Amino acid sequence: MGKLSRNKGAAHERDVCRAIQDAGYKAKRNLDQYQASDGRDVTTDLPLCIQCKCGKAISLPAAWKEAVSACEEHEWPIVWIHYNNPRGLRLVAMSEEQFVRLIQHGVMVTPKPSTVGG
Q: What is the three-class DSSP state of 27?
């Protein structure tokens, strides 16, 4: 992986941490991910195992496999994606089971108009 690619990935991880922190939770980049077998990119006090991906062509199945393999039993795998394209689309992927559990527990809120439709 080249330096530019590493820098883009690190910037994306910092953005993810900032978004989680802005929501009132603790989050920090996992700088040990390169030495340890734990592949999570962000550590947080939420029960999430977050895998960050940034690029033009991202393989969601491969990223999902990484997140699942890094998860502990009590965590949900999450893939947080930033597509490097003119729109700069950012997405968060979770399993269907996770999504259904979220809406069953009434955690859905009305989105801001600027966030509807990407």
A: strand
The two tokens of residue 103 are: 């809406």
Asked whether residue 117 is domain-assigned, the answer is no
pLDDT digits (tens, 9 = 90+) for 39-95: 789 999 999 999 999 988 899 999 999 999 989 999 999 999 998 776 778 999 999
Continuous H helices in the chain: 3-22, 60-70, 96-104
Q: What is the pTM of this model?
A: 0.78
CATH number at residue 58: 3.40.1350.10
Please state, in angstroms and rounded to a whole number, the distance separating the CA atoms of residues 35 and 32. 5
Q: What tokens appear for 5 in the block?
A: 């690619």
Strand partners, 13: none
Range of the domain at 55: 3-110
Sheet holding 48-55, edge to edge: 27-29, 42-44, 48-55, 76-83, 90-93
Structural domain includes residue 115: no
- The reply to whether 91 falls in a domain is yes
